[in-house]
């Protein structure tokens, strides 16, 4: 009973000694390696009651938390952000460890991580082959029917496109330059005389073209500007900047960059060359007015889509945008819009062009083409 009375009514000296005795009792049950006095100091700084240090307190360890005279509520202690590394102290949440690491509390996934997670579950992309490969056009038409049901009626009405022209890249690029800004008949006439000047189509090589003087080219109807374009293309071949094998093996982006370095070859000419000469399956001529007009009619748009809008509008056609673009030309022609004669400039077969009834003259095309990039097809647009 005497013991109970002392606990219920402690003297002033016992009140001063009681926090230290209570803390030391807790310390005896803790499997820490520090001394009891160090633990007392560390625990006291975390407990709700702050005890002022006495003059005879032992020197604190350098890794012990510093004491603060501020109220406990202002102590920047975040237990949820501290993970204790000591295996001995993992069972006691009140024990203080000398090694701590701050970890984020309930980290939320960022937007980029969410996009990556969604991308991880998307279906694999179709690996499209050259459109001249056997059966590839049929695969393309099947894909376009499923990807865009609005294309199905156009696919049913028109015969499937054929990609059967096989010229060397140098010959095809030369032909593209010669046909620029010309009607089909005029371009064919000049091209025929150019072939005779070179000896044959097989004779159209960089060395032969460089040997032709501007006067010789003017005599067959080639302007001085186009003559400089032909010579610039031939020089880049002769210097090793371009070659037939490199062009065939380049990816679309690199090829576009390299070919637009040639004077007289802009984005429109490159797109036509990639579709009709290299038979690349996923080329979208965003600057071609015939394709843009077809997209406007297909989706019933109030205005002609800008080149910057074409990628988003036609994204569902990947990876066969070249085939879909071919149907946009046919659709625009069926609605009375002039043909861009894209296939002629890029070396499409003569049979395809003869099947087009009453093809308009090329000088009329700027009325429907993007004035920023297509008005001067013979000039390097750089876009």
From TrEMBL:
Swiss-Prot/TrEMBL keywords: DNA damage, DNA repair
Bias (Low complexity): 1-55, 62-72, 87-98, 343-367
MF terms (GO), sorted A to Z: alkylated DNA binding; DNA-3-methyladenine glycosylase activity; DNA-7-methylguanine glycosylase activity
This protein's GO CC annotations: nucleus; protein-DNA complex
Region named Disordered: 1-113, 343-370
HhH-GPD domain mapped to chain residues: 178-333
GO annotation, biological process: base-excision repair, AP site formation; DNA alkylation repair
Protein family: Belongs to the alkylbase DNA glycosidase AlkA family.
PANTHER family: DNA-3-METHYLADENINE GLYCOSYLASE (PTHR43003)
Protein name as catalogued: DNA-3-methyladenine glycosylase 1 isoform X3
Taxonomic source organism: Ziziphus jujuba
Gene from which this protein is expressed: LOC107420276
């Amino acid at each position: 009973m005497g013991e109970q009375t002392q606990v219920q009514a402690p003297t002033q000296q016992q009140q001063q000694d009681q926090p230290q005795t209570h803390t030391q009792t807790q310390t005896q049950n803790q499997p820490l390696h520090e001394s009891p006095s160090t633990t007392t100091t560390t625990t006291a700084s975390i407990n709700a009651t702050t005890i002022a240090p006495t003059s005879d307190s032992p020197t604190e360890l350098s890794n012990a938390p510093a004491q603060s005279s501020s109220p406990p509520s202002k102590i920047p202690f975040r237990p949820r952000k501290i993970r204790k590394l000591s295996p001995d102290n993992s069972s006691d949440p009140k024990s203080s460890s000398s090694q701590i690491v701050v970890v984020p509390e309930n980290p939320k996934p960022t937007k980029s991580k969410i996009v990556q997670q969604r991308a991880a579950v998307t279906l694999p992309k179709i690996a499209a082959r050259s459109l001249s490969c056997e059966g590839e056009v049929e695969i393309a038409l099947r894909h376009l029917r499923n990807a865009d049901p609005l294309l199905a009626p156009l696919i049913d009405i028109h015969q499937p496109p054929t990609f059967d022209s096989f010229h060397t890249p140098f010959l095809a690029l030369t032909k593209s330059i010669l046909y620029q800004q010309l009607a089909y008949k005029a371009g064919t006439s000049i091209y025929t005389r150019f072939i005779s000047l070179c000896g044959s189509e097989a004779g159209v090589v960089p060395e032969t073209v460089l040997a032709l003087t501007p006067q010789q080219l003017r005599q067959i109807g080639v302007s001085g500007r186009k003559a400089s374009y032909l010579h610039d293309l031939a020089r880049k071949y002769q210097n090793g900047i371009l070659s037939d094998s490199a062009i065939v093996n380049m990816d679309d982006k690199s090829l576009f960059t390299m070919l637009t370095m040639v004077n007289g070859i802009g984005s429109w000419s490159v797109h036509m060359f990639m579709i009709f000469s290299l038979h690349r399956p996923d080329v979208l001529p965003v600057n071609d007015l015939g394709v843009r007009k077809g997209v406007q009619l297909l989706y019933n748009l109030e205005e002609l889509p800008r080149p910057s809008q074409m990628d988003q509008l036609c994204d569902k056609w990947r990876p066969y945008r070249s085939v879909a673009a071919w149907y946009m030309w046919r659709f625009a022609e069926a609605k009375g819009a002039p043909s861009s004669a894209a296939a002629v400039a890029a070396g499409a077969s003569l049979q395809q062009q003869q099947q087009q009834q009453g093809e308009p003259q090329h000088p009329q095309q700027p009325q429907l083409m993007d004035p920023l990039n297509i008005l001067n097809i013979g000039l390097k647009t750089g876009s």
